[in-house]
Amino acid sequence: MSHAAEAEHPAILLRAARLACCLLLCWMSGRARAADQPEDAPAAAARDSLKGIDLDGKIHRIPACGARRGVAVVFLSTTCPISNSYVPLLKTIAARCQRVEIEFYGIISDHGVTRAAARRHHDEFQIDFPVLFDVSGDLRRQLQATHSPQAFVISASGALLYSGRIDDLYSEPGRKREAASTHEFHDAVTALASDQNVAVRSTTPVGCLLETPAQPDAVSEVTFNRDIAPILYASCSGCHRPGESTPFSLLSYGDACQHGAQIVAMTQSRAMPPWHPVPGFGRFKNERRLSDEEIQLIRDWVDGGKPEGDAADQLAAPEFADGWRLGKPDLVLKMKDAFPMGADGPDVYQHFVLPTGLPKNRLVSAVEFRPGNSRVTHHASFYLDDTGAARRLQSREPDVGYGSFSGPGFENVGALRSWLPGMSPQHLPDGTGQLITAHSDLVLEIHYRPSGKAELDKSVVGIHFASRTARHLVGEFQVMNKALKIPAGATEHRHSASFTLPVDAALLDTLPHMHLLGREMKAVATRPDGIQVPLVWIKNWDFNWQDQYLYAEPVMLPRGSRIDVEAVFDNSTGNPLNPYSPPQTVGWGEQTRDEMPICHFRYACRTLEELVTLNSHYMQFVAEQRQILESEHRP
Q1: For 470-513, how does the pLDDT look when each residue is reduced to its tens digit (9 = 90+)?
Q2: How far apart, in Å, are the Cα atoms of 233 and each of 239, 240, 241, 253, 279?
Q3: Which residue, 162, 179, 209, sits at the end of a domain?
Q4: What predicted TM-score, i.e. pTM, was given to this entire model?
Q5: N or C terminus: fewer CB in 10 A for the chain?
Q6: pLDDT tens, 92-137?
Q7: Per-residue buried b or exposed e for 69-102, using 16+ beta carbons within 10 Å of the residue's own CB
Q8: In terms of residue numbers, what domain contains 601?
Q9: Neighbour order of strands in the sheet with 441-448
């Protein structure tokens, strides 16, 4: 042995001894902490071979010897809105892990996502913990991950202590509670840090499905170019495109491949496209509904490897007009200041008073909304106020806009309906218009959802006036019954309301409305001759996707027709969106924790005299409802 080798020999032995000690300590500490954990933990027990490469190219072994207690990992996504909404909370949990000697990693394992895109996402959301880029899918396969976000907690010995959701904030994609009531991931980390048993070992993750690679040359009867592109372009791309509030585009084969499994899940459940009226119960314009055959084709395509198909069958992606869809508006109303939306927390309903400045009354034919920030703008509604009530509400608030509840907070003199992503603005029938009185205010209500990072929004509303020859006013009435008490624990509480037309009227559209306890709403008109006319029926109410439904043809109802509305509520612990735990008796109110079963209808009459009669009759109905509510609250 050379003199150099002899000199290095003691150092080599010393380093080897230190490494052996380190490995022994890791093994012993892991055994000590995992001794009281059953070995039949979810998925598998020995995880000492996991390794990954972060966005900077650094190799990480999971768990490393430095993980004295263990490791926590979460599968993330660059596009999944549920995953992104959890980033602020994950940063907080990661900081706690660092303090208690638990390593924390994010993992991006979506096929089709480039390292550059993952880096942009990391920087945009200011992620301050290591993110591993699982391009091979090894980490996903070994941990048997299926969703983003999906969390795992692993002991230093490699035992899998927890796998599943972060908390119960989302009951399913698109359905979000006011606040989480269970915190399984945080609890598992806390148990590991304090050498305690993890109480909940496994939960079902809620988020976006992790995708498998496409097989462009797969032999399948169903291909993208021939079978799937026509479905997506006709029913999905209007929302799923750049500039809209959807999390990803569906304008190309690559787009569809990257989200194939998620498309299958959302279409099979009929959560997408978001269209809730029961088929055949009322006829509506622009129905966003897929047939059973279309849904099955999408599933067959994904199961068959997502082949692209013959280039000769390829369709050109649809093109969408930039700017105002109905042309330049006659009146443009802008928010005075940008509204700051926080990175996380509950959804926000904010109201902005936009003075119209009109010197005289005008009839409105259409309203067009352009969100300033589509990442956080879920939907918008437009109310009219000529009493100054909204300005008084605004004057009490130091922030931009006022309020955080569903509804304007005052008895409005009319509404110009709503906007949802992908909705095409439409003019009222020729010769008709809805009245905006001189010097009135338009109150813009925007439903904001946190995106996972701080955002600003400054939205714009465009007003299109009816032609000067328009002579038919469009009015609105609401069918409601404010004598509402939903008992605590009731799983199927039924509540009915009715309104009788004093004159002939043509119904133009309908807008059902409920809050978090709502499950079903059905509206039927019964004519004086006993014939029933179906108006709208929503069996699976979704508070997050309230929409207006324009009838394919005006529904003509003669004088004396009665409109009956029945709502069904679930005020039990089985309702995952119930804002009260334990359940409480809930009555009428504008706060989201209250309930407000209303079915709105816009209508037109043949003569101004008939419209005045109907409106006068309706105002009397509103006064009666006010008295009912006051008597309900009277001690």
Answers
A1: 888 899 999 999 999 999 999 999 999 999 999 999 999 999 99
A2: 10, 9, 10, 11, 22
A3: 209
A4: 0.82
A5: C
A6: 999 999 999 999 999 999 888 999 999 999 999 999 999 999 988 9
A7: bbbbbbbbbbbbbbbbbbbbbbbebbeebeeeeb
A8: 472-635
A9: 348-355, 441-448, 377-385, 414-419
